[in-house]
Every structure is written in structure tokens, then in C-alpha cells.
Amino acid sequence: MQAQTSAAVRCKSVVKTYDTGGDKVVALGGIDLEINMGELMMLVGPSGCGKTTLISVIAGILDQDSGSCEVFGEDLMHMRSNQKLKFRARNIGFVFQAFNLLPSLNAVENVSIPLIINGFKRPLAEKRAAKVLEQVGLGSRGKSLPSQLSGGQQQRVAIARALVHDPRLIVCDEPTSALDHETGHTVMELLKEVALHQDRALVIVTHDARIFGFADRIARMDDGHIDKVVDSVDKL
Amino acid sequence: MNHIALKMLMGDRGKYLGIIMGLTFASLIMTQQPAIFVGLMTRSFSFISDLGLPDIWVMDPKVQFIDDVKPLQDTKLYRVRGVAGVKWAMPLYKGLLKARMADGTFQTCNVIGLDDATLIGGPPIMLEGKLEDLRRSDGVIVDIDGAKDKLAKPPLTPGGKPVPLKIGDSLELNDKRAIVVGIAKTTKTFQSQPVVYTTYSRAIRYAPRERKMLSFVLVKAMPGTDIPTLTRRIHEATGLAAYSQKEFMDLTWNYFMKNTGIPINFGISVTLGFIVGAAIAGQTFYNFTLENLRQFGVLKAMGTSNWTLLRMILLQAILVGMIGYGLGVGLTALFGYAMRNTIMAFKFPWQLLVFSGAGVTLICIFAALISIRKVIKLEPAIVFKG
After folding, report:
1. B341-356 pLDDT, tens per residue?
2. At A34, is the secondary structure helix, strand, or coil?
């Protein structure tokens, strides 16, 4: 484990419950977690343990009921919705399980979306997007539509989209679950190589035990709680 | 983001064309049916509008529309002429008479009798012959549609085409000889009978004898005379109804609006077109949004505001609206052009463009609103669901 000093994410006693037709389901039952800059943190655990809820809270797209979750020192829950949108657009990159590329946009256009949301003009945004696509090894596929790309290539496009605006936190939801072992491995290598550096933190939610070895730390969740945080897969 | 909105819209060709088809259909129905309606209703007063010269029409107070002739005594003409402010007043006969054709069959004609001296009230366009030829013995002028169709002579060979009536041909009006001295073009009227122009005195001779024969008095006001004042003065002096040309056209229009099923029938067509168009376009647009909900969720998660998403959806709605509207209006114009030489009534004033434009805008707003509501309520966290 690398020695980390500054926290990118600091969650304290985060509680989130869902109301499901009169019944309250506790998704997060008082989570404490710190993710440091330059760190790749994996959240693992069985389905329904609260992993997705936790990254939704960390990414600022879901408000917790109580507790605090500071991202780069800002508690998103207390931000006005406009400020929260701007914060998210500027500081957070997303990689989704189902890639979630816009099917009618080509690779360059898909990658340029975060820049356009941040107010860049389209030609400049696409120029920059093309460069990032080169970084992820898809320089020659910029004009391809998602349907013309393989699963691994689509996930590379999604990674390029998560990186293009140079965010400080990248949130990945099951980034390898739709990929075969070899492609998943390549994608993780790429994420670690291209995305991770001292000014950025990565949070990855995964079931895929084959990629646990890429993590700097692993937080194991169960039933809305973190029951273990380890720095090696052997200690899980 | 506009570029992304448009690409999202056009990316799904099937849905995109479906929405446009719905709006095109609505726009077509909302212009084509009213255009036929307006064309038909315009015909109700086309005889009045064809007569541009008189300022005022004088008639029996019980007259409800142009074809509802209630004859006056001839002496009424002189009483109207005596009213201050009247420059001239001319008699006009209008009535339905039977014409006997060369093959012995009968055809009802709309006979118009014009003042013998001035021939005021004659057809607007002479195609053959001159209006003055009416002064020739037994002279009549026939409208081109009547000459080619209902008054045409039998074919020369069995199964052949009827031979159009031409100058020099004769026919019998109420057993009295009439010689065609001209062919005129008139605006089609509500009635489909051929129009036959002749002089007032000859028209009275053709018509069955009655105590009252004068249908209308056509009045020209002195220069500078206020028309409403003069109509009131004529009414007060003679007890007759006096209308400006516009008032008489409105009277006729309103009669048909109130007393026939035409507005209701066309109104139903237009309303159905609007509802069906709105349903097709609204449903397809809503489905399109539902299918793209995840994409909107991705944009929302990445920091796109509701306001931007709303603008994107509005842009999509405006684009399909404009294309659908343009295609619908274009098809209506093509329809009108194709039907220009047929019996079909068709009039396409600019107001109909505004009307259908407003209709298509309403449909687009409706389609956009139901979609916008869904997108605004969308939780961006759905993007993390596999």
C-alpha cells in the first residue's frame, strides 16, 4: 500500500434508507470510509450490500439521509443542486457496467460529452477527445459508432469519456463484468495506467474477484456496512 | 448539447420518421380539410365577390343569402335611385330557369339579368365574345363550365365526348330562343348549375311571369359618401335591406355556417386529424424519450442540468414539428395544385398556415411536456443499474 496523506473522499456515519412501499430498507447503515488521492479503492461484496448506493452518494447523484460524505473537502449534500451539478461535471468521471455510450454518437462525440457539459466548444472538445482516444488505444476508431465496436473497445471509449475532462475522482461501476477475462484484465491495466495518478482517486465497485489484485485497498461490504478494509486481496 | 440532442433524435430512424409522419398527417389534415372548407364556403358568396362595381346590394329584408331571392317590385328601383348619395342604381335579375337542350333534355340554369343599358353585373372574365354582344337579339353569355359540361351538345358519335356549346349555338330558355353570343369564366358558386347571363328585360321575358321580378338593386355610392350611412339611409327610405358587399358576403357565409352541416362535418375531420396526429406524434415522441431515458440519465449523472435537458427535448420537438409542418403544408399545397382545374373547392389563405402551425405547435408542446416531465423526474442513479 502506498502512503497516502490527503483524502479525496471522507464518509462518516453515512446512512441511507429506501422506502419500499411502507417498509424501510437500510442500504447504508452508518458507513465510515476514506479514499485517498492516488489510490484505487475497490468496493466489493454480495449483491444488495449497498455498494452501488455508496458510490452514488460519493458521486453526488444520491443524497444520504444522515452522516457526511465529503469529496475533496466539499459535502455535496449541502450544496445547491446547481453547484452540485457543476461540481460533478468538473470533478467526477464515470465508467458504467453497461458502458452507457450514446448509440447515435461516434466514439469521439461520446468522449467529448463531459467537455461540452463543461462549456467547451464542440470542435475543441472533439479535438481533445480524439487525443484521449489515442491514449486508450482507439485513435483510429474515432468515427466508429458504439455498435461497430467490441465490448472491450466500448469500455475503452467509456474510460476515455471518464478521463477527458481531467476529473479528480473516477467512479467505476462493475467495469469488467460485461467483458471476458482477458479484455477485463486489459481494461483494468488501462485504468490503472492512464487514469490513476497522484491527483486522482479511483473507486471501483465490483464482483469480479479476478481484478481484486489491481486495488490498492479493498473495502468489503455486507448488509449496508463495511466489515473489512484490506490492502491486499489475500487478507479478504 | 444541441448537436447531441439532434443526433439522439435522428439516430433512431424508425422513431424519428414515425414522429414526423404523425405530425405531417396532422398538419396535412389541419390544412387540407379547412382549405376545402374555406373553398366551399367562399363559393357561397362568389357571385357577390365577382361583382366588384356596386358598393351596396339592396334586397327584400327577408333575404338570408345570395340564392334566397325574394323578388321586389320594379318600382323599388326608382325609390332607391331617389335616395341622396346614390350615384347609380341598377336592376339585377337572378333566378333558376329550365333550358331545353338540343337532345330534348332539360337543364336548370342560373340566369342572371343585367341592366340593359349599362350591363352592370356582367361576368368578370370574357373568354369568347364581348359583354356588349348581349345587346344582340336573343343573346346570352354562358359560363365555360356549363358550356363544356351540362349545356354541352350530345356527342357526334355514340360513346364520343359531348360537344361544348359555342358562340352561335342556340338553346331554349323556358320555350324561348336564346343564342350564345359569348363564353365567360365565372368563379364557381355553391350551386352547380350553369350560369347564363342576359339582359334584364330578356331575363324577365324568359322567366315565368310574376308580379315581382326584380331580385336585387345594385347601388354605387356618390364619391365621398359613407357606405354605412348610405345603407342606413336606403333602408330608412325604402324599407328594404341594404348591405355593403362585405356585409352581404358575411350574411351569406353566416347562413351556411348556421344552417348547414358543412362546418360540423369539416370541424370533425379537422379535430380527428388533430387528435390522431397528436396521439401518433405524442406517443412516438414519448416512447422515444422513454427509450433514451438511460442516456438522459447518463447526461444527468455527468452534470447536465434539467434546464439543458429540457432545451434538448424542446429542440427535438421543434425540429420534428417544423419538418412535419412543412411536409404537411407542402402536401396540401400540392393537393391544391393538382385539383386546380377540377370541381373540387380549395382555397388556401395564409390564416390556414397560422392555424395549422398553431395546431402542430400544440402537439409538439404536448409531446415535449410529457417527455420533459419524465426526464426531470429521472433519478440519475439509474445509470448504475446494470
Report:
1. 777 888 888 888 888 8
2. strand
Amino acid at A163: L
| B149-170 burial: b if 16+ Cβ within 10 Å, else e | bbbbbeeeeeeeeeebbebebe
ipTM of the complex as predicted: 0.85
Residue count (chain A):
236
- Flag if A113 and B295 touch (Cβ within 8 Å): no
- Per-residue confidence (pLDDT) for residue B386, from 0 to 100: 56
Q: What is the mean pLDDT of residues A144-168?
A: 88
Question: If contacts are CB pairs under 8 Å, which of residues 43-62 in chain A contact chain B?
Answer: 52, 55-56, 59, 61-62
Q: Is B224 on the interface with A (CB under 8 A)?
A: no
Q: Residue ranges per domain, chain A?
A: 38-61+79-235
Q: Quick check: A194 pLDDT over 80?
A: no
Grid cell at residue A39: 489510490
| CB contact (8 A) between residue A55 and residue B384 | yes
**Which CATH superfamily includes the segment(s) A38-61+79-235?**
P-loop containing nucleotide triphosphate hydrolases (3.40.50.300)
B154 contacts chain A (CB < 8 A): no
* Distance (Å, whole) CA B243 – CA A196: 89
Is there a contact between A160 and A135 (Cβ–Cβ < 8 Å)? yes
pLDDT greater at residue B285 or residue A169: A169
CA B262 to chain centre: 12
At A125, is the pLDDT very low, low, confident or very high (cuts 50, 70, 90)? very high
* Integer Cα distance of B82 and B165 in angstroms: 42
Shortest CA gap B296–chain A (Å): 9
* Nearest residue to A18 via CA among B381, B303, B378: B381
CA separation (Å) from A23 to A26, A47, A50, A225, B379?
10, 19, 17, 19, 20
What average pLDDT does this structure show over B53-57? 91
